[in-house]
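Please fill in the sequence for the structure shown.

STRUCTURE ENCODING:
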């Protein structure tokens, strides 16, 4: 695809996301370290709570299982938040896609250019909004009910893998004045460098 005055530095195929996303969260990258830390903290917390409280395995698994189902309820909320933030930054049209087989879902704004700072807002707003709500619920309820929300935090944070990976990629190319644009008809997202600060 031709894009005059812009250099395409990468393209992301919606049918083959993981080979692009995985390398972006290496532990030597700041966003990779951050992602794995925000996964390990709640995971360590749930193990600690189980160990300290000496809860029965049945009760533990029941509450963690409810957290698992809460995560599925939160999936559409997560994507709707992406869409809402896209609208806030000016996207005229947002659509959704994904694969249950690969368990990957996404919101895309067709042919709408987003710079690095706006993309950070779009990509991570669902993580912060949903996890903040779950943390509040965790501290509102007592043990073992609060395990439901802790389990949901773990699963939702793990599910933000793609969001953190794309933010990490944009961060790596931050000195190149990088922008991104979805091409829904091609089922691809393009990453460009542009010659000046305007897009």
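FILLED IN BY: designer on duty
SEQUENCE:
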């Amino acid at each position: 695809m031709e894009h005059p005055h812009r250099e395409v530095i990468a393209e992301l195929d919606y049918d083959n996301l993981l080979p692009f996303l995985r390398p972006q969260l290496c532990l030597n990258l700041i966003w990779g370290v951050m992602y794995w830390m925000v996964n390990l903290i709640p995971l360590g917390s749930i193990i600690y709570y189980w160990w300290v409280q000496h809860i029965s395995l049945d009760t533990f698994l029941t509450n963690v299982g409810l957290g698992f189902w809460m995560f599925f309820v939160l999936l559409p909320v997560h994507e709707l938040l992406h869409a809402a933030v896209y609208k806030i930054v000016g996207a005229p049209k947002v659509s959704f896609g994904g694969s249950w087989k690969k368990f990957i879902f996404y919101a895309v704004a067709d042919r709408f250019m987003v710079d690095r700072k706006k993309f950070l807002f779009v990509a991570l707003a669902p993580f912060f909004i949903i996890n903040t709500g779950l943390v509040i619920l965790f501290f509102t309820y007592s043990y073992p009910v609060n395990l439901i929300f802790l389990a949901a935090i773990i699963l939702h944070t793990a599910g933000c893998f793609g969001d953190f990976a794309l933010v990490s990629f944009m961060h790596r190319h931050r000195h190149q004045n990088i922008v991104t644009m979805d091409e829904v008809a091609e089922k691809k997202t393009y990453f460009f460098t542009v010659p000046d600060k305007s897009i």
